[in-house]
Here is the input.
Amino acid sequence: MIVVLKNGVGQEKRDQLIDWLKEQGLKVHISQGEYQTVLGLVGDTTRVDMDLIGSLGIVDSVKRVSEPFKCCNRKFHPEDTVVQVGNVKIGGGNFCLMAGPCSVESEEQIVAVAKAVKASGADMLRGGAFKPRTSPYDFAGLKARGLEFLKIARQETGLPIVTEIMSIVDLPLFEDVDVLQVGARNMQNFDLLRELGKTSKPILLKRGLANTLKELLMSAEYIMASGNEQVILCERGIRTFDDYTRNTLDLAAVPMLHELTHLPVIVDPSHATGINRLVSPMALAAAACGADGLIIEVHNDPIHALCDGAQSLRPEQFDGLAKKIRAVREVALA
Amino acid sequence: MIVVLKNGVGQEKRDQLIDWLKEQGLKVHISQGEYQTVLGLVGDTTRVDMDLIGSLGIVDSVKRVSEPFKCCNRKFHPEDTVVQVGNVKIGGGNFCLMAGPCSVESEEQIVAVAKAVKASGADMLRGGAFKPRTSPYDFAGLKARGLEFLKIARQETGLPIVTEIMSIVDLPLFEDVDVLQVGARNMQNFDLLRELGKTSKPILLKRGLANTLKELLMSAEYIMASGNEQVILCERGIRTFDDYTRNTLDLAAVPMLHELTHLPVIVDPSHATGINRLVSPMALAAAACGADGLIIEVHNDPIHALCDGAQSLRPEQFDGLAKKIRAVREVALA
Amino acid sequence: MIVVLKNGVGQEKRDQLIDWLKEQGLKVHISQGEYQTVLGLVGDTTRVDMDLIGSLGIVDSVKRVSEPFKCCNRKFHPEDTVVQVGNVKIGGGNFCLMAGPCSVESEEQIVAVAKAVKASGADMLRGGAFKPRTSPYDFAGLKARGLEFLKIARQETGLPIVTEIMSIVDLPLFEDVDVLQVGARNMQNFDLLRELGKTSKPILLKRGLANTLKELLMSAEYIMASGNEQVILCERGIRTFDDYTRNTLDLAAVPMLHELTHLPVIVDPSHATGINRLVSPMALAAAACGADGLIIEVHNDPIHALCDGAQSLRPEQFDGLAKKIRAVREVALA
Amino acid sequence: MIVVLKNGVGQEKRDQLIDWLKEQGLKVHISQGEYQTVLGLVGDTTRVDMDLIGSLGIVDSVKRVSEPFKCCNRKFHPEDTVVQVGNVKIGGGNFCLMAGPCSVESEEQIVAVAKAVKASGADMLRGGAFKPRTSPYDFAGLKARGLEFLKIARQETGLPIVTEIMSIVDLPLFEDVDVLQVGARNMQNFDLLRELGKTSKPILLKRGLANTLKELLMSAEYIMASGNEQVILCERGIRTFDDYTRNTLDLAAVPMLHELTHLPVIVDPSHATGINRLVSPMALAAAACGADGLIIEVHNDPIHALCDGAQSLRPEQFDGLAKKIRAVREVALA
Here is the structure.
């Protein structure tokens, strides 16, 4: 950590700060520039409150030179983490295709979609039972009943299931779920993260709408520091001024995260764009830049199907896409 | 709600859509333009899934012409809501000054700060007991013990207390707290909002880092739709590409929210800027544009004081500011 | 265009507005909702000042239902535009690979890079002679001399050249350049766009750092409305709060622009990310989602080469990438 | 400047880099941390290409510890710059109120508005003759004729005039204009900035829609490095995801810029919000946080007036506001 002092700071104040830093267990290197004094802090700076130091009256700025995350840092763990769910592996060269409807609507619906996506080569079934909705008047999911339908679909197809958990009070209901998803809006619900860190289930952690990669990694760190190292990161679009797409899918996050961390990184092109015509090109792009998996919305609902609806693909669209995804990946990673 | 159809949509598909919309209980006006057909939907469109319709294959775009929020909408409730906490009123011309340390650190600290800010004219005491932190390694607050110290400070000064609640499992601990704060990161923790809507306590709802005013109002709607109409909105800065300040304080949100809603609107200049030298100018600016209150960080901690620290003001700085805030407000609203 | 009136607007004011709108040559459909009156404007609304109407005292909001761009709108011109430069074609199924150094530094350098990228299959040579720099103290390019070196490299390799023009006063110097590039910072330099519209040269128009797709298309419209229909659009990253990459490459812009316009769309992964390790994955992603071309920085400068420098690729890195790009594109568009 | 090397960089590569840095005339301090080597560069780092170093293969990151701007840096010029235009002063405690219509429409209009705003206490007259418009089909101003009308209004009222220049080819037309405005879209039109730096006229430089404060200061630096130190900075709103207001007015920029630079800082609340009902609260907020001036749109056009139009204020609204602005400023800066 680098602390730049302001011009003309007196000897006494400077020494008070240095003494205080040393009390925190840090070594302090002093380097005197033409206009500024720079302190180099060496030691475990993970626990140092950068904001506090940065706002001290004699400090011009503070800059970290090492990342504040440890468990998920590739520097301290160079080999890829492989998350395993039954026979399905994610990361370390293993690609995982997750697919299914936005919401679980009925037993028939989820079983039918599960069979369809399995036939097209999906590795895991997704489906929302607890749904975060911006409006209190919108459909919030079938909840416990939706989880039951998901398990039936798993039984019928053998596909492991991934679904969103919104609150730690619901945790007992998710005991038999394979992968627990933390949605974008809960990426910094730290209590939830800490509790999930005490489970032994893989966690699919979605990036928040306006969160940096560092914050995403710090949220993974919450889970891992509590003891659970099975974390899958998911890029799902960030909020910008853009008006034609719902969010801006930040695909450069995929190779960047691969540099920073050993955790697998997947992409959700459905929520990122909100437009089903963009799902295929963005899925192929994600495969081309090295994503370890994709999570794609597929439905077979007649109202939607009638009108070619929403951000979801129809099973036959997904079928064509699934083949291409694997082919593109093969060529790109060759 | 306005639905614009794509060029060259056939009669049959168009009629299917219109029939489906009518089944949702809406009246449909058809208006045929040169290039496009526009459907005007009349009725209760609050429950209509705009995203779904917008993504239908025959639909070019969907636009709301009325807001999706009701309880907090000024159109249906023209008079200002006044939130009352003991003798303290917020909104409807009543200005409320909340002040106190970022974190409750000890009984001595919180009592001393409480006495100081009371002497300077503060109306309410703030102080964090449960602290959301980006890093799992950072200090997360004194929790239950911090709440006890806050209550002691209340007893000593008579100031009502406002403090953040992060999880519904902690709700019983907050029974004797005056105002419950929902932090920016939890603005869309819908389970938490719904539970807080079942309490009878005033809720201080902070705007999320990248949330629109409409989303802020939809989150207020969650609380109000569950039965609790005592909601105070708080602008605390949004995330932009800016690098000199921590966040960008969006002060135009104050008069804009006053147009859209009858709820009181306060401003947090301390978290918005992250730099104590900017707190005073931004507090005065907030008062000048009509904020119903301010929530300001004040500390008396010697380490901080030594170095003029952090985003907090020292009691003597707050003292001068408090006077000016009321003077500016008086002139601006004259 | 849809104009939503405010609640309780009187008959007289409403009729004044309707009369004024009719004077602008528009037909006005009135539709009376439960809470609001909505006016549907039919006719040529391209010239209607939406901001003006939107801010009238009796107007709640204004929404366009048709795009304000015409020349570049796919609705009025369904077939892809193919831009041709010598034997090189861009768009309509023709993929164009542009490569070369950030700056032209010397005759030797540009000729050497040109030969190298040609050998790897590049179709066009890029190289900056006039360089926009944030700081007045940074190297601003070799200017006229740089253009001469580019022409020598063209003569040696047969590759057409594309280079940035920053000011209309420099236009005579660019007479013999093949493709004129408008940089991100000049995307809304309307005088420059209008003058370039009077030339007969293909224009490579880069999206501004914080511009919407609609604004990019309106800037293309400036060029086309002045008579030049040879416009190539370029996505090069937008500014967000992200800190690990320089900008956020918005790849969903590629398929979205393909829907909205018939103009070819290329991608610049070098400037978008600013990190050479990310150039290859992003180039492959762009090819996978249907870009009509790529513009990639390649250098052979020894200082850079020594240190594996900057956002540029070395010729041998580019060589491997070029092959993969075409292979990925083939599979993705199959 | 701080250069952090990657883990495990060999001695030889490290020394090559250090030698190269020394050749640039810099002193290099080496500090060896637990995991990383940090180089501290001392000397004139203004001309060092941070992007280049940052992307070298052996470099983890580069951070500036001193600003890259000099002429406008308060560190090297602690006293406020006062820009003087006739008898009107801006900065150093002198407040300047600029007002007038968005566009000059006719001699009658501009003279009438000029007289009105002068009567209300305005110090300078604004009015657009050359108008940057997103659409090529929109009214682009009266150009040379508009400048003539502005001069007539100046003659009638004695108010100095400020108006936008879009291109250096128009410079001769502006010879008799008092203050030249550079619009937000041209903030990084470096050729224009450099040419304006060769004039002796005060320049009103507006912040670009998505530019940082550092970039704004670097653009001021362009003008000043060319010899013209009469620069007025203007905050006019930045682009965010917000949908209710046109832009987000970043008022914290005012005190932040006052720390960083000695140049005067004014605020444009009209363009920032785009909604005339928000202009007054935002103008008062700007005055309260220490702005050195305001530039406000005022019109007397009957179509606008009829409907309470656009983002402009009517003269009688401005009259009330002007008094309040000065009163708020007096109280806030007391």
Q: What stands out?
A: The radius of gyration of chain C is 23 Å. The longest strand of chain C covers residues 27-32. Residues 2-63 of chain C form a domain with the Alpha-Beta Plaits fold (CATH 3.30.70.1140). Chain C has a mean pLDDT of 90.
